[in-house]
Amino acid sequence: MPVERLTPEKRRELTRSHLLAAAAEVFAKRGFHGATLDQIADAAGFSKGAVYSNFASKDELFLALNQRQGEEMVDAYAEATADAEDQTPAERIAAMADVYMRLQADLTQTWALATEFDLYALRNPEVHEGLRAANRAVHEHVVDLVRGHFANAGIDPPLPVEDVATLYIAIFSGLWHLRALDPDSVPDELAAAAVELVGRAADAFGTPARRKRRAASAG
User: Whole-prediction pTM value?
Assistant: First the structure.
């Protein structure tokens, strides 16, 4: 088979991906403040110039990493429950719990790094705005999945889909915090069970979309 030629866009995409992977390792090892762009470039096998051609600063690199990891986590949960209609509640909880444990293998270290950057961002307005933008992008990713769920179920949710997405994120963030500080306080399946509970409650309190549209047209 002929070897696919790398276009400039594809080459740039691969370089960026390698840099993000290297950044994840270096940040986890040294913390946000301790890590340097030289170390990240070296870990990725590139020059420092390659870093600057993709990211304007260490802040921007960390924000890109934060957003990518968040979206990958959301996608992993979505994939685990892609066949939700064919799964029992217990099976969905088990599938999500498996993802939770796989992604949280280095929970304490990851949480400490995220908290370190959060505090740094709160003291630096420009960085804070970048963090908010990255978090909003992840939130929109969750909103899309929540909206798709209700559309497929034929239900108008009891709350705006943006609020339901916020509840899901808050559950994971809060339990992540608690488990990082005291692993024994959060059972392995609690996050998955909480998501299942919120989802079932939203479905139960929602309004069947067809019935609601018929009532509106009749009025």
Answer: 0.77
